[in-house]
Amino acid sequence: MSFGRPPSISQGFKPTPPDRGSFPLDHYGECKDYMQLYLDCLRKNASNSTPCRHLNRDYLDCRMNRGLMGRDEWKNLGLSNLQVDSDQAEPPDKTPTAGSS
């Protein structure tokens, strides 16, 4: 009898890639500002995503640029009909302004 390890270890472990549509969590908050802008837009529009699609595209672009998800074509993500600026806009600075009450 063997104690201390599961029997599957002796057969070898074979990692598998995540299912399509799942991707690693943003542990370091690299795209948190983009995500927050998108979620705020959804709240303001009663969860209607149509007016927020450009923010969704910015968020996914941030994730792809930082290796948090695999690069994919916009048409596969349902966002091919949106205009893209050559320079991706950075999210606004969220530091509080002086003199606010």
From TrEMBL:
<dbReference type="InterPro" id="IPR051383">
    <property type="entry name" value="COX19"/>
</dbReference>
<protein>
    <recommendedName>
        <fullName>CHCH domain-containing protein</fullName>
    </recommendedName>
</protein>
<dbReference type="InterPro" id="IPR010625">
    <property type="entry name" value="CHCH"/>
</dbReference>
<dbReference type="GO" id="GO:0033617">
    <property type="term" value="P:mitochondrial respiratory chain complex IV assembly"/>
</dbReference>
<feature type="domain" description="CHCH">
    <location>
        <begin position="31"/>
        <end position="65"/>
    </location>
</feature>
<dbReference type="Pfam" id="PF06747">
    <property type="entry name" value="CHCH"/>
</dbReference>
<comment type="similarity">
    <text>Belongs to the COX19 family.</text>
</comment>
<keyword id="KW-1015">Disulfide bond</keyword>
<keyword id="KW-0963">Cytoplasm</keyword>
<dbReference type="GO" id="GO:0005758">
    <property type="term" value="C:mitochondrial intermembrane space"/>
</dbReference>
<feature type="region of interest" description="Disordered">
    <location>
        <begin position="1"/>
        <end position="24"/>
    </location>
</feature>
<feature type="region of interest" description="Disordered">
    <location>
        <begin position="82"/>
        <end position="101"/>
    </location>
</feature>
<comment type="function">
    <text>Required for the assembly of mitochondrial cytochrome c oxidase.</text>
</comment>
